[in-house]
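Here is the promised in-class demo. Please do not try to memorize the tokens; focus on the logic of going from shape to residues.
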């Protein structure tokens, strides 16, 4: 296996009889002497930010509680309980308001003054909301107005001062570097900013080849945990890199020194050199955390509730035909990273298609009797709840495709250049395309285009309410005419 996994002269993806594992695919794409870097250290900055957000939140809660308890002490000479009751009422409102502001964002870490202003706005809004609630519910008799007033003033001062002092301390402690950026050099020179990782594409054997899933997976591994990549390459290579990184789920910028004389509003800068923003991650860290929390909650509950059903299905598969209960297949996931999707085996062992080169049709002889029932009821997808819990998939998102799947006579990514953009988020157990009835074989190129349009629409308009709605709508399409 000396060469990369790539399409042939007619755009066809070759059979991968000897390339059946994720490790082999990466090895097939690696240039001699190059190094495939792990993603462990690259994830540190995201984890660091989450830890620092937690520290800021705990500090805010401690200072706010102390403010209202001190107000209680100043008013009555001892703690009467009014301060604690006020804190219990106002703090949840403050958290909700702060989450929609800049209280716990990367800007709050990079700019302590902006962080202090954000907590002041959030606390003032919380005070106003709490006052309206007390007035509307006529619950003022249970609270001390003096404690409320003194505590609010103390909290405003202490929280703002803490954000300035703690913000500067954390900034100096981590050298004001709270995110991990990559400077990718492809035949061009550029000076890195502080804290940037520099990758030489030539030395690492990297190419912007969208016809090579193994190369895209390798790129994804190198970029794992990073949120911004700046590319220095020749002008004729920019479009290729844009396509290759379109599904990376991160900001992608092109160094464009020739635009120094152009006064454009959408230009960014890197060490005083203009860059063009050509890609953007669809979800901020806060949105990703919310979506992940939803995934963990739903998948955990579903695995517990459906464990008896999955056990019965496993027994039925073993009785029906010899072979393993689970079927594993390489699929392309978030950021173009390869992962093994889990499904209940629905085909005879000797006819199992590991690469999805031949889609299942309505009367496919490869499907077992039990497998036909599982496919018709979508029960074969249940093991993917484990993929969700592991973080490879999401409950809702674009469905992951097998590497050999075709639309008409072309590989999926050859049909529409926007195809890789659907990998900007984790693939889903269900999705917008599925609840719209876009399931089954991709017989024509239009079949893929309709699904791709639905996937991109979902990514562009994501919010947690849409995920909940799609899950509920999925219950109505578990049994579908195109499920076979």
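The designed amino acids, position by position:
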């Amino acid at each position: 296996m000396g060469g990369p996994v790539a399409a042939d002269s007619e755009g066809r993806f070759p059979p991968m009889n000897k390339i059946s594992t994720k490790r082999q695919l990466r090895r097939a794409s690696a240039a001699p002497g190059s190094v495939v870097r792990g993603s462990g250290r690259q994830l540190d900055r995201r984890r660091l930010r989450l830890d620092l957000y937690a520290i800021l939140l705990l500090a805010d809660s401690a200072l706010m509680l102390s403010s209202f308890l001190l107000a209680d002490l100043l008013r009555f000479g001892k703690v009467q309980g009014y301060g604690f009751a006020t804190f219990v009422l106002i703090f949840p409102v403050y958290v909700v308001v702060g989450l929609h502001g800049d209280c716990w964002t990367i800007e709050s870490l990079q700019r302590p003054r902006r962080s202090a202003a954000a907590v002041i706005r959030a606390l003032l809004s919380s005070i106003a909301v709490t006052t309206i609630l007390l007035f509307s519910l006529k619950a003022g008799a249970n609270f001390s107005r003096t404690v409320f007033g003194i505590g609010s003033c103390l909290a405003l001062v202490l929280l703002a001062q803490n954000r300035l002092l703690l913000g500067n301390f954390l900034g100096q402690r981590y050298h004001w570097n709270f995110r991990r950026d990559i400077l990718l050099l492809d035949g061009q020179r550029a000076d890195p900013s502080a804290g940037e990782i520099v990758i030489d594409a030539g030395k690492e054997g990297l190419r912007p080849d969208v016809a090579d899933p193994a190369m895209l997976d390798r790129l994804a591994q190198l970029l794992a945990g990073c949120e911004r990549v700046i590319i220095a390459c020749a002008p004729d290579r920019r479009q290729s890199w844009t396509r290759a990184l379109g599904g990376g789920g991160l900001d992608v910028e092109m160094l464009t020194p020739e635009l120094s004389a152009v006064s454009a509003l959408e230009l960014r800068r890197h060490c005083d050199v203009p860059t063009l923003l050509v890609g953007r991650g669809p979800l901020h860290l806060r949105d990703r955390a919310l979506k992940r929390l939803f995934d963990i909650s739903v998948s955990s509950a579903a695995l517990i509730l459906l464990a008896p059903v999955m056990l019965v299905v496993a027994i039925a598969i073993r009785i029906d035909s010899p072979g393993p209960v689970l079927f594993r297949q390489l699929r392309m996931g978030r950021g173009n990273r390869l992962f093994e999707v889990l499904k209940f085996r629905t085909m005879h062992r000797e006819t199992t298609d590991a690469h999805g080169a031949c889609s299942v049709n309505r009367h496919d002889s490869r499907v077992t009797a039990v497998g036909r029932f599982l496919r018709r009821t979508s029960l074969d997808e249940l093991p993917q709840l484990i993929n969700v819990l592991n973080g490879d998939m999401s409950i809702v998102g674009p469905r992951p495709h097998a590497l050999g799947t075709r639309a008409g006579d072309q590989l999926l990514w050859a049909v529409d250049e926007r195809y890789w953009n659907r990998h900007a988020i984790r693939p889903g157990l269900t999705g917008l395309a599925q609840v719209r009835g876009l399931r089954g074989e991709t017989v024509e190129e239009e079949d893929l285009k309709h699904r791709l349009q639905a996937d991109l629409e979902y990514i562009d308009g994501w919010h947690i309410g849409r995920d909940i709605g799609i899950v509920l709508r999925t219950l109505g399409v578990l049994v579908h005419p195109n499920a076979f």
